[in-house]
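Note to self: keep these together.
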Amino acid sequence: MTSTYSTDPRFHAVVERRGTHSTKWDYMEKLYGVSAEDGLAMWTADSDWPTAPCVLGALQRDVEHGVFGYMATHDEYLNAIRWWMKNRHGWDVENNWILTSQGLGNAIALVIDVWSNPGDHIVTFSPVYHEFRVKTEKAGRVVTECPLARDGDTYVLDLDDAQARMTGKEKILLWCSPQNPSGRVWSRDELRAVAEFAARNDLILVSDEIHHDLVYPGHEFVPMHIAAPEHTDRLIVACAASKTFNIAGQRTGNMIIPDDALRGRMVRRLNSLDYKPSALGIQMITAAYSPEGAEWADAQVAYLQGNTAVFDAALNAIPGVRSLPLQSTYLGWVDFSGTGMSYEEVSRRVREDARIAPSAGPAFGAGGETFLRFNLATPRSRVEEACQRLTKAFSDLQ
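Structure:
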């Protein structure tokens, strides 16, 4: 099977990350009890290959220059973001809409801080990116969880159920598009319905679009601003180059806020914190959002398609196990409910017998109780090794 898919050497070679202070590899034993010596890190969402050569080249030029003094946000950086959004996603963005945060997680925390108060409720549609709940609860707010419905392998909206859960205390809707952990790419109509739900309940709408470049052929990502332009007055788009280009450690993300009044509130908060972006971070994004970066991103998606195909074929051959087909992202979302095993037993087999550390499904909220999430952004040899280990760990089901 693997020969029919991309074996691009930029993604195929194994890069040793153990002993580099990598959260993904050097922290997994503490969290999951899986030693990096013989374990496979398939949890936190970063990739195991180097970033694009154009990004590395920009960093090398800065290193050779040798001076790392104060740097102002510059037009080349803003223009690169504009170019990327227009050419990759058909979205016309203005320079003054773009604000910079210390990564996407920081952007979510800032929005919660600016547009809500302790005790207020934050709406999520679960299962969803676990940091939505973490950031909400750290800030002393309360999650109003609205479960997505399941139609076979696909998650769908149930806005009638969501409406019934509203208490009037909700201030913000944290929305994930494409969806993490399932990889669902939402349609224009679904996005518009979500925006109308936010307007109906007077919610600030935060659209986390960080995975928007990792979309597989046959599916179309639509920015929320394009799907629902009439709701611009409540819209904040959170995005970053970090997942696409594997530069999350540079902690540089963007909040794109088209509405002047809405944006003004965030600008005042950033100014009060004396926040300024990382000089190297904005240089990396400027280099990434380019034609060279676009070619690299497309090649990465082609490689990920191969990883996903290998993984799905192996997991779906285990009786009672279902790896949901991905429309986007590199995050395999696997349902073990058909095995009849408890979550604890499934997790034990994966961690202790297969020596793999995936993300725990229950952390993603309602609907994740029987799932594990596997990061497939790793060389194919590791995906194949993971498949062999998982097949053996559940061999008694064959």
